[in-house]
Structure formats: structure tokens, C-alpha cells
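Progress report, Aim 2. The chain analyzed during this reporting quarter is listed below.
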Amino acid sequence: MVAKGDYGYAKSLKRRRLLLMLACFAFILADVLISLIFFQTKKTLFVVVACVMAIPFAKNLIGYLMLIKYEPLKPEEYEEAKKLEEKRGTTFAYDISITDTQGVLFYPCVAIYNNNVIGLGQAGQNQKKKDLVTYLKKVQEGPPTKPRVVVVESLKDMGRELDRLTPPKEDQLRADVKIAERLLELGF
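Predicted C-alpha cells for the chain:
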């Protein structure tokens, strides 16, 4: 199982949601068929259980549909991101989603370095850059420090942003860990 924030989390979550959805559907179908075949009626406890199983089925269906349009980094992009991580001595969070009542935004890669949050915006989301920055600024609600939030369009731009920053001090490294924890709390 891939941990939240690791590369491949979105793909793993999609697969898990799909499997759970199919398992719930199979259980519902089997439950209703048992009721119809053995009792020749729909008025049994089996159908009540099937109705209750519709709730996790719907939850997983919605979760899968919300995730289907988001694409993680391609393997070659991931290798490029790993090189940036090694060069700067930081770690990136991958497959980050941020949700609220208005929708979901997905960031294939986010760097947290020296009180800066640099997110890679995904092309084709039909979202304005302003919205991408606004959603990512939700990390400011958690830690006591207010990190600078930037959304870039490519890994090269992310590298340029990281090159502009000075290495963090020891106390800032602890604050960066808190920012990373807050970031992972914001999505599914």
C-alpha cells in the first residue's frame, strides 16, 4: 500500500476505490439474487442488507469518479523531480489533492522548502492559476507560520523557484514538517 504523499498514491487510491466499488456491487447483486431465487420475493432481510450496502458502493463510486480525471507525474517526470529533491536536499509530496465544498484540485508534485510551498499545477484541469494558489494556501491555516505559496506550471519552473531559496535552518526544518503534515490532511 502506497502512503499518502508518496509517488503512486493516486493510482493506488483509484485502484482501491474501484475494487471496493466492484466488491460492494457484487455483494449487493448476490444478496438480491439470493432473496429472489430462494424466497421468490424482494421482501426479505437480504434486500435490506443490500440497500445498506448501497451506501459504501456509492461512496466508492463517487470517490473513483472524483479521482479519474487526475493524472500523476509520468515516470520520466518523476525521475526529474527526484533529481530536484536530491539537488536541494528536500522531499516532495506527490499526488496531493485538496478538497472543500466547492471541489477538488490535484497537484502532481508539491515541494515544501524553507517556509515555501511550491506546487506543480496540473494542466487541463480547467482551473485558473489563482484557484490553484487559493486552494494551496489552505496550508496556512494550520501551522503558526505563514508559508509563501507558489504554483508553477512545470518541473523546470519548480527547480528555478527552489534555486532562488536559501537552505533552511534547523528550526525551519521542523516547521516545514508541520506544513507537510497539514498539506496531507487537506485531501482524500
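The first helix runs from residue 9 to 39. The beta strands are 92-100, 103-112, 116-120, 148-152. These observations will guide the mutagenesis work planned for the next reporting period.
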